[in-house]
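Q: A reviewer asked whether we had any structural model of the full assembly, not just the individual parts. We don't, so I'm hoping you can provide one. Inputs are below.
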Amino acid sequence: MTVNRRFVLAQRPSGLPTASDFRLTEEPAPEIGEGEFLIRNHYASIDPAIRGWLDPGGNYMPPVPIGDAVRASTIGVVESSRCDGFAPGDWVMGLNKIETHSIGRRDGFTHGIDVSAVPSPTAYLSVAGAVGLTAWFGVNDLMQPGQDDTLLISGAAGAVGSLVGQLAKLRGARVVGIAGGPAKCARLIDRYGFDAAIDYRGKDVAALSADIASACPDGVNFVYENVGGTCLDAALLNLATGAQIILCGLISEYNGEAAGARNLWQLLVRTATMRGYLLTQFLHKFPEGTRAMIDLVAQGKLVYDEHVEQGIDNALPALLRLFQGTNEGKMILKLI
Amino acid sequence: MTVNRRFVLAQRPSGLPTASDFRLTEEPAPEIGEGEFLIRNHYASIDPAIRGWLDPGGNYMPPVPIGDAVRASTIGVVESSRCDGFAPGDWVMGLNKIETHSIGRRDGFTHGIDVSAVPSPTAYLSVAGAVGLTAWFGVNDLMQPGQDDTLLISGAAGAVGSLVGQLAKLRGARVVGIAGGPAKCARLIDRYGFDAAIDYRGKDVAALSADIASACPDGVNFVYENVGGTCLDAALLNLATGAQIILCGLISEYNGEAAGARNLWQLLVRTATMRGYLLTQFLHKFPEGTRAMIDLVAQGKLVYDEHVEQGIDNALPALLRLFQGTNEGKMILKLI
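A: Here is a predicted structure for the entire assembly that you could use as a starting point for your response.
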């Protein structure tokens, strides 16, 4: 009998998740029905969005039911199939769960992947996956920064932020990143080619705003916001006229009260726009975006980093690293 | 000698303005130079934006200097002129000051007005002035609501809000207004033809949000925000997918700390947009908008209200009414 090891939600976390909010279970691997296939998951994507799915209201997806394995994008190999187009041995990715075996079905998120096109299958959870697509459409469809524009990115050393900055540089924009600590700031410049880096640690809105003003003397034309709170309020004080803020994430809020933003008046003064962004807006263009990102990697125009933790036992520590900021690159959990 | 009575800023207010922040002065009327004309102001527009101009940072315009008369739009009659196109006896409007006599120059805000086209010259400070234009471009250029859309307006009984609602109704949208107290809510329905009215008084975000949800069961496609604070946070909890929020004003913040908004996460969940709006974005279309508003009034398709206070001695009480919510219609100060 095949055993399915699962990272199951035991109770809804309050604030930062703790060990007692989850349990690891072992169950018989599920039987597949007509139109289904069994996936042996190799890797799971550990994303900040998972935290929202644990709350009673979910976020833009329904909450993970208590007693069920935690939702995550995974990549793996089809073990058995009763679904046309998915054969044993095929590599697939989909929105599944943190578990060793998932049932796959034909849906908008599940599709085959060509692992020969990328340096490692994990690329489909990072540069060629949701993270990379989020950056691609954010830069090239939503913002479209040009060579006269300054783009400010919070969470800039993160998986999405580091790609957003590189893609904006490829369009000729000036790119300034906000990150936590000198090591990450150095990586923004040295590895990702940002024009300037700002360490937010220990700074209030006024101090961070002053640093942004120094790095962006003509104001900021685009803000790519992954963090919220102090970062967002400081960015709001440095908008150029007609600026656009893309709200991609608010990681500073995910384990506590919604801080929101105080300096909204600046949107009016600068006739600026704040736009909420979900990758699913561009579902119809996923193949195009994936190809573009794979090509850029192949051409050596993009670098990306992955932080792989080993084993389902480390699912919680991997998730917590995102909120501690101790991951270096896209957080991925190896399940095999 | 002609005396110029002026409402002068004596010191910058902290919170709600008080009598000691201003003084009334009498000075000789100014001499006109080449390219200038002297305006006998008949009416001044008393707007929430004036409060921001009294602060050290101003808002989207420079602060009023201490010792100078307070900035306001006025309408009046040319008394003498050394400027082609402006002759004695002409009615004009412009961004001038709260004073009986202003120097006029040819600029983007100063132009002649046809008082025969409107029921009263004051219309150029209300339905055919900045207030009316703000509503016109906000509805017909920025939002463009259609018959399948629900529009939520805060400060709905105010000068701008009441026109926004009527213009949106003319496009077939469902219109719901938020106002303070039962009398204003009744006016929204009975006089301005709104579909529903919500009294915000005494309600926290949760209670106001529940009322909005009742009035807008399918969510809100457009929010026209004049107030901020509790109103904005409650609106954010009721967005339909792809909703657009127009930030036209945040009157709840003008005399205190910036409350901002906490529920920004909803922008992301609903892939919604919040857009700061200044009328000056549409400066090039002012003649077109003015004609449209005058025509709608002439056709009986729009009603509007003006609240006229008599005399420059009442400049401060008139301003304070805006923040107390005790004006009924566009606040105008009669200066003659």
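A: Points you may want to mention in the reply: The radius of gyration of chain B is 20 Å. Chain B has a mean pLDDT of 95.
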